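Problem 12. The chain below contains 332 residues. Write out its predicted structure in C-alpha cell notation.
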Amino acid sequence: MEKRYDNISKIRLLKVWEILRTETDEDNPMGTPILLQKLANQGIKCDRRTVYRDIQLLNDFGYEILHNRGISNQYFVVDRSFDVPELRILLDAVQAASFITPKKTEVLVDKIADLAGSHRAELLKNNIVRFNITKHTNEAIYYSVNEIERAIIEQKKVSFFYFDYNANGERVYRKAKKRYIVNPYATIFSNDNYYLVCYSDKYKNVTHYRIDRMESVEVESDNITPTSCISSFNISEHRKQVFGMFVGKEERVSIVIENSLIDAVMDKFGEDVQLEDRGNGTAVLNISVQISPMFIAWCCSFGDKLNVISPQKVITEIKNYITQLKDIYGIN
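Solution.
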C-alpha cells in the first residue's frame, strides 16, 4: 500500500508541473481551485495543503513555480526553454523551408508553438504569416533524415535510390534505379533545400544529394571509408565555395566589384571575406570557389558591376557562357 501511495505522489507531482508549465504564464496564473479541479479530471484527488506541499517540493528541486498570494494562491511558470521571439523565428523558419512538406509544417508549427504554453501558443499560431512557398511533397524525407543521422552516428555507409522528375511530373531514377552507396558526412540546408554531404568511393570526392530526391534510404552494414579528404573537410568553407550546391574544381579567383555589391558579397561569403578597397568606388574580391555553371551565372547576374580578372581560364568560361546565351537568343 505504501508503494502505491508513493507512485501516486510521483504522478501527482508530474501532473502539477505539467499543468502549470503548459497552461500558465505571468499573465495567466492558475488559482488553487482550478488546479485541484484539473487534477481531479485526471483522476487525482487531493486538497489545498497537498498541492501547496507539492509545489514547494517542486521548487526545492529547481522546478520554479511562482505565485501571487491571495485568498486563493495564483500559480504560474515563466521560465521556459525558449522565449516568444525565439519561437517566432523557429516558426517562420519552418514556414519558409520548402523541403518541409505541408503536412509536416502544420505538425511542427503546433509543436513549436506549444513550447510557449497554451495561452501564448494560440497567439503565436494566430499571428503566423503564411509564406507563398512551394513545399515539397516527399513525406519520406523525415525517415530519410533519421536513417542518415543514424548512419553518421554509427559511422556506417548509407544507400538510396535517387530520382529526378520528367515533364509529366513522374519520377525518373538515375543509374537505372541502382542504389547509390556513399559515406555520409553531414546534412546541410542550402538554397531552400536539404542536402546530404558525403564522400564517394567511386569518384574519390565530396559530393551532395538532395534528401527530398532520395528514396528507400538504408543504413549499410559496411563502415565508412576513412579518408583524409573528409578528415580535413570544413563544411562552413565548403558552403561558401559552392553555388547552388554544384561542385566543381576549386580555384582562387580575383573579382572587381562595385561597392554597391559589397552587401551581396558578404551575404554569400561572410563578413570576414577578403576585400581590397581600390578607392574609386570599387573593390577587389579574392575568394576560393568551386567553378560550376551556377558560379558563372552568379558572376553574370550582376552585369557590368562585377568583372572577373583572374584566372584566365575562368574568364574564358564566362565568355563561352555569354556566347552560348547570345546564340540561344539570336543576339549578334
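Discussion. The CA atoms of residues 93 and 268 lie 19 Å apart. Students who got a different answer should revisit the alignment rule from Section 12.3.
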